[in-house]
Amino acid sequence: MGEPNGNRMMSVEIGLEMHKVEAPPHRSTINKLQTRLKETFFPDDPLRQFKGQSAKKKWILGAQYAFPILKWGPEYSLKLFKSDVVAGLTIASLAIPQGISYAKLANLPPIVGLYSSFVPPLVYAVLGSSRDLAVGPVSIASLVMGSMLRQQVNPVTDHILFLQLAFTSTFFAGLFQASLGFLRLGFIIDFLSKATLIGFMAGAAIIVSLQQLKGLLGITHFTKKMGLIPVISSVFRETDEWSWQTILMGFCFLVFLLITRHISIKKPKLFWISAGAPLLSVILSTIFVFAFKAQDHGVSVIGNLEEGLNPPSWNMLQFRGSHLGLVVKTGLITGILSLTEGIAVGRTFAALKNYQVDGNKEMIAIGLMNVVGSSTSCYVTTGAFSRSAVNHNAGAKTAVSNIVMSVTVMVTLLFLMPLFRYTPNVALGAIIVTAVISLIDIPAAYQIWKIDKFDFIVLLCAFLGVILISVQEGLAIAVGISILKVLLQITRPKIVMLGNIPGSDIFRNIHQYKEAIKLPGFLILSIEAPINFANITYLNDRISRWIEDCEAEDETLKHSELGFVILDLSAVSAIDTSGVSFFKDLRRVLDKKSLKLILVNPIGEVMEKLQRSDDTRDLMKPDSLFLTVGEAVTMIMSTRKNHV
Q: CA-CA distance, 464 to 379, in Å (whole number)?
């Protein structure tokens, strides 16, 4: 590039007005700390509603904040109640068979699944902020709890101990969830990225479905392991236990449930078909077994279920002993999974109806719901997507639909338990398979593949980890890779070279804008990340290499010698003391090479810290600090022209 090209690149306006880079207003350290804490823990500013209110009004608002039912309860009407009754009865028809099925998935007595569909919804109706969330046991948390506890305790031979550990794990899950809400630490669950969850859910859905082969094929001796290979090996190793009666019944109900699910997906107004199908399957299969005495021909049944409401279980909680570490670990993992699912489901349906769900209040509600549940013979519960979707489509208006569902389950517990005696396990297996299929989201996985290949690797690791190793290890691997990605972004910040858009004073990334041209004598770089101790070595090495490449290119093409290194700091949102030292060291290195360092638009905290550290006023001199890259280049070129 010769001089004519340089003139074509950017016209120098000698009379261009320069804008001063202003320092941020002075704030005390306490004020800064308050702002930082507020933005970290109270980004939603929950106290703003109390400003300017009388003492009485503040008490009312406080009560409504703690118990959302007090906010919408006084305005509740008969019209809303009619809609909630329909929705509540509809989700009850789904919750009853699912509750029984998911309890068996967690290696717990089926009755515990119904207990968990009675008390927790009542607690959530008082404390929860979502109008659409339908509360109860969920497949993934059930699977994880059952598999983790079974590693140390046999649910068949030590069923009392297993039940105690399940309730204690539920207590710790609720305690952890509520603590996150009270301490406003909900950002911790954000480490479960969308890619991680999609891969994990798909893998868990496959594992859950494979586990149901025991019931669908009528196998008695089945592996206790959760991996793909052990399950498949167990299925084909025990072919002599396959029961054709069980297989035929399972196939028929599975096809029936999948058809009803397909109909409801294609025609959402017919949601009631798939919502009522599981209960209808239970009724029909129970009648069939009773009428033909199928239990005498190899079809296993649930057996007798205890009548009555939830017995208290606080005396069963185990806070000491050799299994304490296990229950804390199980509670932590199932708490995170159920909390993530519940909040995600609640926000999804809130967005559809254009209302807000308070994430921290949801954590408290779900946490307290599980703490209370652990004392009333319940295991981990949350808002399930399938039940919440039915609740939404059935026209639920408030959380009263959960109360209606709970009352329906209560009636079932009191009077209808004998009817489930002949319910075949194969029907429950078909219900579980149909429910978890929706967790395999292939379109979302394909979308992630198109957008971000690294995220897809995270998804794949979560998926393969779950089906090949175990549920908890697969989740741990995916979270670890996600954290590694974040660390790489911190330690290897993006830094790009800028070029001038011909005929303007605009500078853009030369790799993104092909028309952008490098100016002779200038190395213009944009740092697009916070600068801290973790990345200054990389930045120093990268900038040094760019300077060497630029000097070699100028020598080869006989350009003007490199004289200025311009760093655009517009995207640098934060800096620490190591970052400040980096600029001072870079300035000294460039001075030795007769190169001038120019800083462009350091913002807020960055500007303030650089000013405080610049005792000799070398770094922040007026001729080394500009508002835009265009102004910096224009001033330098005009000064050069005046000196010629």
A: 28
Both structure tokens of 307? 């009548």
Distance CA 642, CA 622 (A): 18
Are the CB atoms for 14 and 639 separated by under 8 Å? no
Alpha-carbon distance 335 to 311, whole Å? 23
d(CA 233, CA 226): 12
**What angle do helix axes 324-353 and 159-182 make, rounded to 10 degrees?**
50
Strands 564-568, 522-527: pairing kind: parallel
- HSE on the CB side for 497, CA within 13 Å? 18
Q: Please spell the DSSP secondary structure of 189-238, one letter per residue.
A: GGGS-HHHHHHHHHHHHHHHHHHTHHHHHT-SS--S--SHHHHHHHHHHT
pLDDT at 480: 85
d(CA 387, CA 382): 11
Cα separations in angstroms, 82 against 76, 252, 384, 387, 456: 11, 35, 23, 19, 45
Residues 6+ apart with CB under 8 A from 416: none
From the first residue on, what is the mean pLDDT of each consecutive set of 10 residues in the chain (644 residues)?
Answer: 44 55 78 77 72 84 87 89 91 90 90 95 93 91 90 89 96 95 79 83 87 79 75 82 83 91 85 85 90 80 87 92 92 91 86 82 93 96 87 88 95 90 88 86 92 90 87 81 86 92 90 90 93 93 91 71 91 92 92 91 88 76 88 85 62
Give, rounded to a whole angstrom, the gap between the first and last alpha carbons of the chain.
Answer: 20
What is the pTM for the complete model shown? Answer: 0.80
Q: Judge whether 574 and 530 are in contact, CB under 8 Å.
A: yes
Q: How far apart are CA 142 and CA 370, in angstroms?
A: 14
State residue 38's pLDDT score: 74
How many angstroms separate the CA atoms of 424 and 622, rounded? 83
- Contact between 165 and 149 under an 8 Å Cβ cutoff? The reply is yes
pLDDT score, position 557: 63
Nearest CA to 611 among 574, 580, 586, 578?
Answer: 580
Instruction: Name the DSSP class of 301.
Output: B
DSSP per residue over 99-132, as a string?
HHHHHHHTTS-HHHHHHTTTHHHHHHHHH---SS
